[in-house]
Known about the structure:
With 156 residues, the protein is of the alpha+beta class. The protein has 3 helices and 5 strands; from the N terminus they run αβαββββα. Helix 2 crosses helix 3 (138-146).
Amino acid sequence: MSKLAQLKNRTRSNYGFILEYRTRWSDNDMYGHMNNSIYNFMIDSVVNAYLIEFGGLSPPTSRQRGLVVHSHTDYFGSISYPAVAELGLRVNAVGKSSVRYEVGIFTRGVDEVKAVGEVVHVFVDSETGKPSAHGMDKSISDALRRILDTGISSKL
């Protein structure tokens, strides 16, 4: 099965963390569905919500921050206001200072995935902007490994 077909077959059970997002009227574009930039906003939101809640990240004070070095989204359907989106997060790879996330975007009550996004973060020192010699903070690394896809679906 192709990678695109695999992504299109994603279900909520493929993701270890789910966050709801209530769409707003202003999320819709002139065609009546959610604007592509809002999908990117939601992907960023679920990643950071998870890092803050489970990884101890405090954006204003943390000694590390994740910089996006790659992102893309595959679209399979659309969402529009007043839908409630469910954002599923999993980690597909963790390195010394980088992580590859996958986010599945669903409409509450609908089984089919609407979009799947991928983001790669490189964690850098907040002051120097360079990856730390010791890699990402242990609290972040540990949190990421909790939702690391190992071929077996797991929930927190």
